[in-house]
Amino acid sequence: MLNIIKVYATCFKFYLKGVKPTIHRKIGKNGQKGYFLRMGTGGKSGEPLLRVNMGNYYSSFPMYDRKGKTRVNPVVPIKTNYIQKKVS
Asked: What residue segments make up the domains of the chain, in order of their start?
């Protein structure tokens, strides 16, 4: 129960700041389902993302500054459900 509260509080914080997720996808059948937060390392680029799992879906939010400001996406660039509907 506490994880659910943390997840929704984090999403609400990003909503208030105007930060939209870089990625929003449905979790595959072998993925980890549930409610939790996971911080990425950023790999080669060094630009980490915060993964927010919400049941059967997850979103990844940018956790780095670009030119002194937190990156704010005007739209969600990768949204699997939307892409599937556009292609079909």
From this structure: 2-81
Rounded-to-integer distance, Cα 34 and Cα 77, Å: 24
Q: pTM of the entire structure? A: 0.70
Closest CA to 54 of 27, 82, 75: 27
Q: Which residues of 6-38 are buried (b: 16+ CB within 10 A; e: fewer)?
A: ebeeebeebeeeebbbbebbeeeeeeeeebeee
Q: And the tokens for 77?
A: 């660039």
In the structure, what pLDDT confidence band is assigned to residue 2 with cuts at 50, 70 and 90? confident
Asked whether 36 and 55 are in contact (CB, 8 A), the reply is no
pLDDT 10s digits, 4-58: 899 889 888 888 887 888 888 888 888 888 999 999 888 888 888 889 998 899 8
